[in-house]
Write a structure and sequence with these properties.
The chain is of the alpha+beta class and 103 residues long. The chain has a three-stranded antiparallel beta sheet with strand order 2-1-3. It is 51% helix and 20% strand.
Length: 103
């Protein structure tokens, strides 16, 4: 990278018009049919949680009706929802996964 290109990059990073992308929370919702083990599997495979983290989130879903699986930029959140719903459908579970803007 030339010195000029490095200067352009510094200016771009300091540009006040640039802002952080909106973040979205991805929620896993409780139902009476989806196996708890499957929810843990989704949290490990899709959301890259450890077994312990996944178990804690699954228990929060079970006890509170829903829980945040992760917070991502909108496009990634939508992809995680799609992956989760696809896995659930393939396994015959009615698991609901949604995303919404984080506050």
């Amino acid at each position: 990278m030339s010195e000029r290109e490095g200067q352009d990059l510094d200016v771009a990073l300091d540009d006040p018009k640039l802002k952080e992308p909106n973040r979205h929370s991805v929620w896993i919702h409780n139902d009476n049919y989806t196996a708890m083990e499957f929810v843990v599997e989704v949290l490990v495979r899709v959301f890259k949680k450890s077994e312990d983290q996944a178990t804690q989130i699954m228990l929060t879903v079970h006890n509170n009706g829903k829980a945040v699986a992760g917070i991502f930029v909108q496009e990634i959140a939508e992809m995680k929802v799609h992956q989760t719903l696809s896995m659930a459908k393939a396994r015959g579970f009615p698991l609901l996964c949604t995303s919404e803007p984080s506050t």
